Amino acid sequence: MCGIVGIWNLNGIPIEAFGLDQFTDSLAHRGPDGRGTYICVEANLGLGHRRLAILDLSPKGKQPMAYAGGRYWITYNGEIFNFLELREELEGLGHTFVTESDTEVILAAYLQWGESCQLKFNGMWAFAIWDRNERVLFISRDRFGIKPLHYFFDGKHFAFASEMKAFLALDWFRLEFNPRMLALAVSNYNRVEGGTEDCLLKGIKRLHGGHCLIIRPGKEPQIKRWWNTLDHLVAVPEDINQQAEQFCQIFFDACKIRMRSDVPLGTALSGGLDSSSVICAMHQIRAFSDNHSRLSSDWQKAFVATFPGTIQDERKFAEQVVQHVGARPTYKEMDPTEAVENLDQILFSFEEIYDIPTSLWMIYREIRKLGVSISMDGHGADELLGGYHFYPYAEMRRALVARPNLNRFYEMRATLQALYPRFDIPSPGSILRDTLTQGLKNNFLANSVRSLGRLGRSCLFPDYVPRRTDWLLVNPQVPFFPEWEADKSQLAHFDSLNKQLYFDFHYRFLPTILRNFDRCSMAHGVEIRAPFMDWRLVCFGFSLPASSKIGGGYTKLILRKAMQGILPEPIRTRKSKIGFASPLVDWYKGRLKAFVLDTVNSQKFLQSDIWNGSLIRQQVADSYAKGDFLGASRSWQYIQAMKLMQLFADKSNQTANKGRN
User: Fold this and answer.
1) Helix (H, G, I), strand (E, B) or coil at 375
2) Domain boundary among 205, 227, 249
3) Do 186 and 329 sit in the same domain of this protein?
């Protein structure tokens, strides 16, 4: 896991070593264990790499790495978890290896199979391979976009990097924010930004997961979709117990190959079903595995974020899991004072606009401080298996309108009530009135979350307030997902729940969540591994019917059945869900208040061309005067956007001044 960059001066200007060094070292936080650069003088191309040493800690594992007598050069961020099996296969085909790394396996696989090598890999990655002989740059991103890749092309330059902020180090790059993307980010509660091609910075594009990019001299970048989950679905048994048995086998192997490491492992443990399943599977694997598969023997560290005195605190659940597997726990209290003191660093590290990311940032900082650089986490399970509250809510509505079924309605209502026992669940009459009023029967999927924002969230979450769009002066960018449009014909046989899950997994929620966790973990050089995102498990999951995911009063039913006898029963059968967030409203009452008021009263905020600063200032002041801290917190994304723009401008100016000196 690392930070990668590359520049190709298509205008014939030579690569300057100093400029490439600056570009590379802008990502030092992603790779604190080493650095390297490569310049192809005859092509005016440079590659840079900041190393987070996980496999083959020796100097042989450093990058950029050459292969085939220097014909191929790679800079690579990620892990190929099945590299041992691929290495053995490639050795049988005549390839030899001088390192113990997965990086060299990628190079040999590319030489052997070309672009088809991508289908051989089980892992998470963003890599660039330069073919010196053919003058071709090949860039690939993993199936689901777990690892990031941004690029810039203007005909004169082609550049890529793991993060947007890295481009500020390039002397020819001009910092300019995209107003419509900013408007989307501050106003869009559907969380689609991470799945879009456009970014907050003008000119910067995001290479989508499951895509590769090829660029040659005199040609524009050619982007190909190399992966489509729908092409790899499998036949599953009809009996849910047999389904659970197969699910368990795949999940355990996904965990096992992700335990391959030459450094210690840890787990960011919430006490919820997903992260608990991961650490309990690791416990079983280590108990019954030999020591010949490069599995880390130091895996027992559990890191738990705590929120004492709040409903978000899950320490009592995490403690049960810790005791069950014999883990060594670290409990990190989320201190708002500490968060505010580090706010500039947190927001610049995060480089996006979302809810305040302090809790994520601080727990991964704690993990790194205690000598761990890998966290085995539970990402992807909610979007794959229907874990969020709006999935049973949507099933309730379907059971009333789209496909009337009162038994299913009351089953889903009970499931939803168990998820959030503190809140009132909408009555059949209120759901039916809202659904019919909005005409959602004929366009259900497109409007389900929109309706939820009007009715479901207000009923389930009294402290939820949608983001304000009436504060905007520009229209938000309209997200467009061409792959989703192309997939619709293949999705025709999917049930409604799986259609919604497919969209959320590939385009809406999960890409943004993965982006958020990547920035907060890699800000401290911590690699996240996510067994639920093993492509085999994803394909199996999308081959299952809705009844295997939400049923019997549970969400993620198949996972609960698969983990019977492995998880502590109170965790396996726990129905309530809390989630991992920061108590923003509480912080608006005190710790953030001065920062909020200073920002909304600043001239730059008031003179914004993107939002109505005077209106926001007045409504924040009115909310504070009434003690309405929830209303005041509506302003957060606008304040975050203002701060991020300032931080980026300051960094750009520092780089420019350094270049002049």
Assistant:
1) strand
2) 227
3) no
Look at residues 486, 551, 14 and name the one whose alpha carbon lies nearest to residue 240. Answer: 551
Residues 475 and 519 grouped into a single domain: no
308 within domain boundaries: yes
pLDDT at 575: 87
89 located within any domain: yes
State the pLDDT confidence band at 334, using cuts at 50, 70 and 90. Answer: confident
CATH assignment of the domain containing 64 = 3.60.20.10
Q: Please give the average per-residue pLDDT across 8-17, as a whole number.
A: 96
Q: Do 404 and 417 reside in the same domain of the chain? A: yes
Q: Residue 623 pLDDT more than 90? A: yes
| Nearest-angstrom CA–CA distance, 322 and 308 | 18
Q: Are residues 261 and 210 in the same domain?
A: no
d(CA 606, CA 141): 40
Strands, E assignment, 122-265: 123-131, 136-141, 150-153, 157-161, 204-206, 211-215, 222-225
Say how many Å lie between the first and final Cα of the chain, rounded. 33
Q: Do 611 and 647 fall into the same domain?
A: yes
- Distance between CA atoms of residues 129 and 133, nearest Å: 12
Alpha-carbon span 78 to 51, nearest angstrom: 11
Is 460 inside any structural domain? yes
Element spanning 268, H or E: strand 266-268
> 152 forms bridges with which residues in the sheet?
159, 204
Q: How many CA atoms lie within 13 A of 9 on its CB side?
A: 20
Q: Distance (Å, rounded) from C-alpha 544 to C-alpha 288?
A: 29
Is residue 552 included in any domain, yes or no? no
Starting at the edge strand that comes first in sequence, how are the strands of the sheet with 527-529 ordered? 328-333, 301-306, 266-268, 374-376, 527-529
Tokens linked to 498: 């799986």
| Helix-then-strand count for the chain, H and E | 28, 17
What the block records as the tokens of 312 is 């978000």
Of the candidates 305, 213, 291, the one whose C-alpha atom is nearest the C-alpha of residue 256 is 291
In this structure, of 6-10, 167-171, 481-485, 586-590, the range with the lowest mean pLDDT score is 586-590
613 lies in which domain range?
A: 584-660
Phi then psi dihedrals of residue 144, to 5 deg: -115, 10
The one-letter amino acid at 259:
M
Selection from 284, 310, 244 nearest residue 556 by Cα: 244
**What is the enclosing helix (H) or strand (E) of 406?**
helix 406-419
- 546's CB contacts (< 8 A; 6+ apart) are 386, 395, 495, 496, 497, 498
Domains in the chain: how many in total? 4
Residue 617 token pair:
């200032």
Please tell me the pTM assigned to this model: 0.93
Tokens 């599995």, located at residue:
295
**Do 311 and 169 belong to one domain?**
no
Q: What is the DSSP annotation of 408-429?
A: HHHHHHHHHHHH-TTSPPPPHH
User: Considering Cα of 554, then 556, then 562, then 564, what sign does the dihedral take?
Assistant: negative
Question: Are the beta carbons of 348 and 640 closer than 8 angstroms?
Answer: no
As to burial, measured by CB atoms within 10 angstroms (0-12 exposed, 13-18 middle, 19+ buried), residue 180 is middle
**DSSP classification of residue 64:** S
d(CA 340, CA 358): 9
Q: Quick one: 488 and 378 in the same domain?
A: no
